[in-house]
Amino acid sequence: MKLSRRTLLAGTTALSLPRTAWAQEKTVRYGIPMTDIPLTTGQPDRGANAYQYTGLTIYDPLIAWELDVSDRPGKMIPGLATEWKVGETDKTLWTFKLRDGVKFHDGSAFDADAVIWNFEKIFNKDAAQFDQRQAAQVRPRLPSMVSYRKTGPMEIEIKTKSVDSLFPYQLLWFLVSSPAQWEKVGRDWGKFALAPSGTGPFKLARLVPRERAELVKNEDHWNPKRMPRVDRIALICAPEDSGRSAALLSGAFDMIDAPGPDMVDRLKQSGARISSNITPHVFNYHPSLLEGSPWTDIRVRKAANLAVDRDAIVKLLNGMVQPAYGEVDRTSPWFGKPAFEIKYSPDAARKLMAEAGYSKANPMKARISIQAGGTNQMVNEAIQEMMKESFIAIDFKPVELEALMTGWRGGAKADMNKDVTATNVTHVTSDPFYAVNRFFASDQVAPVGVNWSNYKNADVDRLVAELQNTFDPAKQDALAAQIHAKAVDDAVMIWIYHDRTPRALSSRIKAYTQAQSWFQDLALVEM
Question: Model-level pTM?
């Protein structure tokens, strides 16, 4: 196995510190599966995975996930907002009381003005601080917001487009950066990216684009539970699975995300620990349902679901994932009771394809956009061979991750997607909004949300409306389950597997809490 020179240099030169400082500091060298460091200005790009790197490290949300538990899914907990409530008479109005005494890294005070300023940077194109890059990342995650205003020095009010009981889940994605620091660096987001200021448990000490970012402990963080256990974390770009794994074996890295499946046994033999957990995150194909797409025939979509041997995919990935039989795992309260059973049944798949007019001599042809390289491409190629046996001939359009995400947000109608009829973006399913509303409600058709396919079902829309008007958690679960069952019965996607998000930890890492979440808290890493 060849270790790339770039990865080796990144690992061994990750810190520009004298050796005396090395001896005094607890420093974690963390190999991340990305070609570039995610955006550091407040709303990270490069997908949801980036929030654990340059999102929840440098910044805080108004509402946070509980990430210090691993034996159950975390709950929503107070972040920069200490409490929130919906209006008694007007259910479209939400009031948020903000946390007093919090300081940004630059020393300026966090308050209601700062929150409003941050909403303006992503919603108001006429605002001086508007930033299209940040807006592109988070605005689609806040589809319910229609207006916001300051109602006191430490209180804000948000109005939603309609009654939406799930709105607080949307704010988990909204992070708050410092207006004062933006002014200090000359009102330039490019300069802000090199010297960002949030309220999070880490500060950015150094950024080398496409190579590394060095995060140092924020001694003044407001939350004692999230006070970092280490002094410094070096995030090092290592996009190749084999390169990351080899760097951990050589001692260049202390922890890595997504070890190469074929390297897991060797890593264990070297003394490394493999940490994984149930993760609300699904690998799928999202087919276009626009006129002219071959996927508009439900028989084809069902056949594609039946053509995939998920157990073989799990084996290919060395047990680091689990089969998906829908958008959420069967153990989820939102799975429901779909009539269509997703399983490996190539004979049934071929029968459906024959009914739809296809055969070995005349297969259905489709092109799918996927992320270039790495484990995803290996899995896609395995699925390609499986589908071929069921008269489904797919080819791929490999693109860089951020281009794939941009195409996903644009929807099937976007010009950039004219040459594909499906996309392969793995995504989070951590709450009812993300698990069902965002992908299956007709009012979430891209670019408002990520109903990429333009799926429309009147029964689903009716249930979504009922869910949004229901504030009882048990009733929310029951309604989400009904929506999910209908989506599975309509085979809206071809679902392959749920992640267990494996990480490899060297013996230098003494403790790491892996939450049942796509988000993780690096403040909890101990050496």
Answer: 0.87
